[in-house]
Amino acid sequence: MSIKAVIIDDIKDARDNIRLDIESYCPEVEVIGEAEGVVSGAKLIKEMHPDVVFLDIQMQDGTGFDLLDIIDSSQVKVIFTTASDEYAIRAFRMSAIDYLLKPIDPDELIESVKKVSNADRLSQDNFEILHQGIKNHKTLTRLALNTLDKIHIIEIEDIVRCESSVNYTTFFLKDGSKHMVTKTLKEYDELLSPLGFMRVHQTHLVNAKLIKEFVKTDGGYLLMKDGSNVPVSTRKKQAVVEALSNL
User: Domain span at residue 240?
Assistant: First the structure.
């Protein structure tokens, strides 16, 4: 079954490159139109009703988010294309929205098309997390968790701790609920450590604000405010003591 796509980017060379890559590596995708900006892109989407939009973030007459405000974003699947930017990439990972870095890697293009064609359309919450993260990376407050059955939008302050099991990570929240995602703890360590989380063990990441006490006996462990105990590895003990002293 053919996937109908449009490309929206204000740089012609970028549009040409994406089209060529799609034609070369994704024969199931048919590019049915191109646009160079927010206004023309919104008009194109409304006229052509594509399945997927390859959407640039920064354009001459606005941003990809401005375009999503104009159209009904719940009716289309989006793959953002972006230049390499540390904070933008972090925001994408927080929002669980797929993206491609320019210049586009063929393998990543193939994987993105595969994922977006099999995935449900994202909610406005996903786009808001992304938009917030790109506008001001210091005020990220929510995280999208893509589990097997749905995408959960959670408040970062509600995360008590994260625990890994091979390539899975389980999030434990203040209300007692938990969510398992198919990503490694290392990925969430990179995302959440700048936001007040601490990697205290190979398999544990905790919200420092929700630590109740550090028990030095029995090998050393943290008692969290939800009543759970989290082991602290020997090589992390000094860093934990210093971090708690600075809270």
Answer: 146-245
